[in-house]
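task queued by scheduler; priority normal; single chain, no ligands, no partner chains; default sampling; output format set to structure tokens
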Amino acid sequence: MWDVLFTNVHLATMADGDGAYGEVRDAAIAVKDGRIAWLGPRAALPQGAQAATVHDGGGSWLTPGLIDCHTHIVHAGNRSDEFEARLNGATYDDIARAGGGIMSTVRATRAASEDDLLRESLPRVRSLLAEGVTTIEIKSGYGLTLASEAKMLRAARRIGRELPVRVATTFLGAHALPPEFAGRADDYVDEVCTMIAPLVAEGLVDAVDAFCERIGFSHEQTERVFQAARAQGLPVKLHAEQLSDQRGAALTARYQGLSADHLEHLGADGVVAMAAAGTVAVLLPGAYYFLRDTTPPPVAALREAGVAMAVATDCNPGTSPMTSLLLAMNMACTLWRLTPSEALAGVTRHAASALGLRDDIGTLEVGKRADFALWRIARPADLSYAIGLNPCRGVVNAGILRSPAV
């Protein structure tokens, strides 16, 4: 006997790799022990099949639970004052000289307690969960000391215990140069490398990231962080080619990295390297929009090379204060010409790959975790089409149905 059976639904399995939704109309899907036990046309249900609980989906579309694979959602404070200042003519340098920018968030995050960080972050996470998100990645990077980075990562782990969401954590100590290391970037990179082992020992880290950029860390410094991560058995990913081509994507591919993210200035060599390594391109339209960027990532080249493209919110206080993955999907389609099926694959199948979780989540297939979202829509493309509409009518975590309002 199955634990749960959902009937009268249309499935977008996202299991097809050819740009289709993997549609199964008038379908059913069964759950046993939190895993998908059966799915297919309702007419093909095994004779005599029974379940302890049966849900009538009322003709809803059912997709894999959405996955936000790049966020900085744990932080203290906000930077709306900088947003306003920029619109009144202030430059990035003006704001930085006045003590703003990322260091503003670092100061606020260092001053906050773990409980404070949790309390500030939960509403942001709830906004994502209300739109069918069942898995999120959460980066550190606003502490820049071992104690503060660990505090952020502990708060991230607690979110996964407080709310019905799976949390993947990423250590981003190489996010910016803290003031106490001014003029000593190499010394700070040494410090970052020594932080990894104690964070691993405490069970706080699933992957390691860095910001490889002229205003961040060099190609060589980033490689040192990657080497330290791999020595601890951790996969790597990278903020790459957002502002200039620092060959970060190719470096990430050389270390079999899970993903290279942003990529507005990605060159042809980087595309080839990512394709060969299977490194996912994580596209972040929120930052592109918020910063009023004009250089799009090379979507056509990525598509032609067969590089998987994920889509995420990049939720952060400075460049993408966005807590809507549905809006990110619309932006990716509108700004960069992704198709709606590519956008949905980008927040399901490819987002799972960007977190190293493709064998467990991201598609509707027998044996995978039973994380679903149910939608009041006419067709899957509606999820990328409507701006500001949330058609989510239910979310399933490991087979347990809940309201989208967490």
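post-processing summary
- The first strand starts at residue 2 and ends at 12.
- The chain has a mean pLDDT of 96.
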